[in-house]
C-alpha cells in the first residue's frame, strides 16, 4: 500500500541519534527535575526561546502536547457554551471535529488559489450573531498547501480587529519552506493584539516528542494552565528539555535544512508525476512548502468512487469531503507527499492517474 493519506514525516528526516544524545545530556544534568511533575506551561528555557522567536514574553507561552491539544485547550476556554466559529473551506479535519464536539456553529469561507473570500468573511462578521473566533492555517495550509498573501493577512487582522473577533493562527508548517519569501505571521502584524498563535515542533523536530505551543494574551495564561493541569497534571518535561538541548546545541537549523531538502524532492516528484499522469480537467495546488497538495478531479469524477478504487489498487489518500464543515470536496482529494519515497510517489501517482483517466472517460 502506497500512502498519500497521513501527514507523517518520512523517517529519513528524524534526527534519532541526536535526540538520543540530547536525552542523555538533559537527564544527567536535570533528571531530578525533568523526570518529576512540572509547571503546566512547560519547560522554562524552551518557553523563553519560543518567546524570543516571536517577540513575545515568556509568560505568554504555553507549551502543549502537540498543537492540536493547544487548540483544544483554547476552544474549551473560548467555547464554554456553544457559539459560532469561522473556518476556511476546506479546513483541517481535526479542527472541525473539535468544534463539532463543542456544539459550535461552523461558518465556512471559501479558500482557493487566489486566497480567502474576504467579502464572504466580512459579511459573516457583520451579522448580529458575531462569531467568537476565526480559525486559519495561513502558510502551506492543511489540506491544500496554499498560503495567504501579505495583503490577505493584513486584511484578515483588520477585519477581526474591527469586529472584536479572536483570530486563531495555526502555523505549524511555516518553517518547512522550499522556495519563495517567508511572510510575517498575523501575530506579528497585529503586534500580538487579538491573535492567538499556535505552532508545533512535529514538522521541524519530531512528531513523537508531542511538543507544540501557544502564544496567548496574558489574561488567558492562567485559565489555560488550569485546564492543562486538569487534563494531564504535569507536562512531559523530558521531551521539552530534549528539544531545548537540541536547539541549544545548534542542531535545529541544520536539521530544518535537511527536512526541507528531503521534502522538496518529494513535492517535486509528486508535481512532476501529476503533470505526467493526470488527464485534462484535473488541477492541483503548487505549494511552496509544507506536507500537502490539493487535487481537483475532472468534471464528473467523484472522490468517493475513486477512493475505493484507489484502495483496491494499493493507494491511499484523504477524500476532500473530510475537510468541509458542510457540502464540498466531492471531487477533490488531499495528497500528502511527506512520507512516501520518491519511487513510491511516482508509482502511486501512476496508479491514481490511470484510475482518474478511466473515470473521466466514463464521465464524458
Task: Please indicate the count of domains.
Answer: 2
Q: What is the CATH architecture descriptor of the largest domain?
A: 3-Layer(aba) Sandwich
Instruction: Let me know the average pLDDT.
Output: 96
- The amount of helix comes to 40-55%
Radius of gyration: 21 Å
Q: Tell me, what's the shape?
A: globular
| Strands side by side in the biggest sheet | 2-9-8-7-6-3-4-5
CATH first level of the largest domain = Alpha Beta
Index terms:
364 residues, alpha/beta, Aspartate Aminotransferase, domain 1, Aspartate Aminotransferase, domain 2, 2 domains, eight-stranded mixed beta sheet, four-stranded antiparallel beta sheet, 12 helices, 14 strands, 16% strand
Q: How is this structure best described in words?
A:
This protein has about 375 residues and is of the alpha/beta class. The protein has two domains: about 1-10 and about 255-364, Aspartate Aminotransferase, domain 1 (Alpha-Beta Complex), CATH 3.90.1150.10; about 15-250, 3-Layer(aba) Sandwich (Aspartate Aminotransferase, domain 2). It has twelve helices and 14 strands. A hairpin with a 7-residue loop joins strand 10 (about 285) and strand 11 (about 290-295). Helix 1 crosses helix 9, helix 3 packs parallel to helix 4 (about 95-100) and helix 5 packs parallel to helix 6 (about 150-165). It is globular. The two termini are about 30 Å apart.
Compile the SSE list and pairings.
Elements: E1 2-3, H1 16-34, H2 44-54, E2 61-64, H3 67-78, E3 84-89, H4 93-101, E4 105-112, E5 115-116, H5 118-125, E6 133-136, H6 150-163, E7 166-170, H7 186-189, E8 195-200, E9 212-215, H8 218-232, H9 237-248, H10 252-277, E10 283-284, E11 292-296, H11 303-312, E12 315-316, E13 318-319, E14 332-336, H12 342-363
Helix pairs in contact: 1-9, 3-4, 3-8, 5-6, 10-12
